[in-house]
Amino acid sequence: MRYEILGPLRVVDGDHVLAIGAPKRELVLGMLLVRSNQVVPADDLITEVWGDDPPRRARAALHVSISHLRKFLARPDRAGNPIVTQPGGYLLDLSRDELDAHEFVRLAELGRNHIKQRRFEEAAALMESALGLWRGPTRGDLPSGSAISRYVTWLMELRLGCSEMLADAQLELGFHRELVPSLYSLTAEHPLREVFYRQLMLALYRSDRKADALMVYQTARRTLNAELGLEPCRSVQDLQQTILMADAPAR
Q1: Assigned domain for 207 exists
Q2: Least confident range of 70-84, 108-122, 151-165, 200-214
Q3: Strand ranges for the chain from DSSP E
Q4: Is 232 exposed, middle or buried (0-12, 13-18, 19+ CB in 10 A)?
Q5: Residues 6 or more apart in contact with residue 21 via CB below 8 angstroms
Q6: Which pTM value belongs to this model?
Q7: What is the pLDDT of residue 77?
Q8: CA–CA distance, 203 with 218 (Å, rounded to integer)
Q9: CB 67: neighbour CB atoms within 10 A?
Q10: Residue 39: which of 97, 90, 84, 95 has the closest Cα?
Q11: Is residue 209 part of a domain?
Q12: 250 band by pLDDT with thresholds 50, 70 and 90
C-alpha cells in the first residue's frame, strides 16, 4: 500500500484510492504516519485529536478509531495489520508500504546534492519529480501546536526550498523566459519570500525586460516595508544595483 499525505490524506492500494472520510480517524492515522515505525503513546494521540480538553471516555473513543482503521487497512492477501498495539500506544509499520512524504524528502535531498555538484539538469529533474508528488494543500484546520501541524509546516518549508532550488537550476540552464510566469505566481503566493523576487528579477533581466525587473524590486521593497518595516535583503539590493549600472550610460 501507499499512504499519501502530500494533499488530502488517502491510501492507494493497487488501482484503488481510498479516503477515510472521518476527521478524527484521519487525525489518528496522520499522527501514526508522521511517526511511522515508532510507538506513539495513546496520550499523544488523544492530545492530537482532542487537544487539551479530551472527553471523559477519550481512551475508549481512541480504541474505537484504531479498530476502524485496522479494518480499513486490512487486506485479505496480507498477514497481520500495519497498525500494531505496543505497550502504552500504537505503531504503524511501514516496512512493506510507502509514504509519499518520505519519497518527497528523498528526492529533494538528492536534488540538493546535485545542485552542490553543479549538475543542474539532474537537479532540476529531481526537484520536478519531488514537487510533482504534491496533489494539493494538506489539512488546513489543524491546531498550530499539534504534531501533525508542525510536520506539515516542515514539509511546506521543504517544498518552498525545493521550488527555490528548481528555479536556481533552471536559471543556470538558461530557461529565463520560461521561468517568468511561475516566478510571478510564487512571489504573489509568498510575498515575504525574498529569494523569489531575486529569481524573478534575474529571469526578467536576462529576458531583456530590465524595466520589469526593476518594477519587481519596487514591489518587493513596498511589500517588505509595509509588512515588516524592512528593506530587501542584500542579494536583492545588489541585483537591483547591477541592473541599474548595466543601464547607466558610459562615461
Answers
A1: yes
A2: 70-84
A3: 2-4, 10-13, 16-18, 39-41, 83-86, 89-92, 98-99
A4: buried
A5: none
A6: 0.89
A7: 81
A8: 16
A9: 11
A10: 90
A11: yes
A12: very low
Which grid coordinates are listed for 217? 524590486
- Position 213, amino acid: A
Helices (H), the chain: 23-34, 42-50, 58-73, 100-116, 120-131, 147-172, 176-189, 194-206, 210-228, 234-247
Q: Are 19 and 10 in contact (CB under 8 A)?
A: yes
- Check which CATH number belongs to the domain holding 202 and give it: 1.25.40.10
Q: Which of 96, 125, 158 is the last residue of a domain?
A: 96
Q: Which three cell numbers stand for residue 108?
A: 529533494
Task: For 77, list phi and psi in degrees, rounded to 5.
Answer: -95, 15
Q: What is the DSSP letter of 250?
A: P
- Domain total in the chain: 2
Considering the domain boundaries, does residue 131 fall inside one? Answer: no
C-alpha 10/C-alpha 19 separation (Å) is 5
Rounded distance, CA 230 to CA 198, Å? 16
Amino acid 178 reads E
| Residue ending a domain, choose from 96, 130, 161 | 96
pLDDT score at 143? 56
CATH number of the CATH domain containing 53: 1.10.10.10
Can you tell me the distance from the alpha carbon of 147 to that of 40, in angstroms, rounded to the nearest whole number? 11
Q: Which three cell numbers stand for residue 37?
A: 515505525
Residue 153 lies in a domain: no
- Give the single-character DSSP code of 174: T
Structure-block grid coordinates of residue 195: 529569494
Per the structure, the complete domain to which residue 8 belongs is given by 2-96
